[in-house]
Amino acid sequence: MKYKLLGVGTNAKTIKGDGSEYLTAILYMQSYKVMVDGKSFNSCPMAEQASCIDACLITAGRGKFSNVQSARQRKAQWFYKDRDSFMDQLIIDISKFVNYCNKRGIQPCVRLNGTTDIRWELIKTESTYGKNIFEWFPTVQFYDYTKIANRKCKDIPNYHLTWSYSNANADYAKLLDKALEQGMNAAVVFRSNFIQVKPKCWHTWKGYPVIDGDQDDLRFLDPKGGHIVALYAKGAAKKDTSGFVQEV
């Protein structure tokens, strides 16, 4: 089935979690700054503070191909230039995806920020009749990574967020304890595979228990808050020295 905005079964990490129970559709768009009619829009407001611009996962996997980059840029420009028609198409794509999953007895899951950090909970247009996308699809499980520590999503039952750590900025790094104390898990990117390198009895980092985030991408199935989700550096992140990628 073809979708204009969503990608299904194209993310290797997500495919590991696919099967008889879950299938994830992901929206990939140009990350960070997007130019539309001479104006700049920022899809990742914490990118500079977290120093993850150069190590962004937009270069990982299929993202290294120019045609994929162009497609993501077109989607981002559409999002900022004509929000109503973009949301119309997003609703169509998610509806098609849900129908596909329902016919096969699979639980549909959606990640809207595959390569962005947009506050979707705040986006309400005429095409969504004043509702955000989570209210529009209350039975669909949405989940994302975020670097925005103050996103107000606790009261959205079908949206799960995992905070993303970076040590490139001291003030940003200090948010780790706060995020975990508030019941979130924190994703940490390591240069080496943490789970393989460290003996099982040492699976802690900064005093917090560590779980393997590369087994699948279904973060909403992780243990409740207070855990470190270890991710292995991919793409340009393998050579990052900014402090975004951590040593094991």
Task: Report the major sheet.
Answer: 10 strands, mixed
Number of helices: 8
Shape label: globular
Question: Roughly what fraction of the amino acids lie in strands?
Answer: 15-25%
Summarize the structure in words.
The chain contains eight helices and twelve strands. It has 248 residues and is an alpha/beta fold. The strands form two sheets. Strands 1, 2, 5, 6, 7, 8, 9, 10, 11 and 12 form a ten-stranded mixed sheet that branches. Strands 3-4 form a two-stranded antiparallel ribbon. α5 (133-136) links the parallel β5 (107-111) and β6 (141-146). α3 packs across α4 (83-103). It is globular, with a radius of gyration of 18 Å.
Summarize the structure.
The chain has helices at about 10-15, 45-50, 65-80, 85-105, 135, 170-175, 175-180, 195; strands at about 5-10, 20-25, 35, 40, 105-110, 140-145, 160-165, 185-190, 205, 210, 230, 245. It is of the alpha/beta class and about 250 residues long. The protein has one domain (about 5-245).
Which key phrases capture this entry?
248 residues; alpha/beta; ten-stranded mixed beta sheet; two-stranded antiparallel ribbon; 8 helices; 21% strand; globular
What's the SSE blueprint?
Blueprint: E1 6-8, H1 12-15, E2 22-27, E3 33-36, E4 39-42, H2 47-50, H3 66-81, H4 83-103, E5 107-111, H5 133-136, E6 141-146, E7 159-164, H6 170-173, H7 175-181, E8 186-190, H8 194-197, E9 204-205, E10 208-212, E11 228-232, E12 245-246
Parallel strand pairs: 2-5, 5-6, 6-7, 7-8, 8-11, 8-12, 10-11
Antiparallel strand pairs: 1-2, 3-4, 9-10
Helix pairs in contact: 3-4
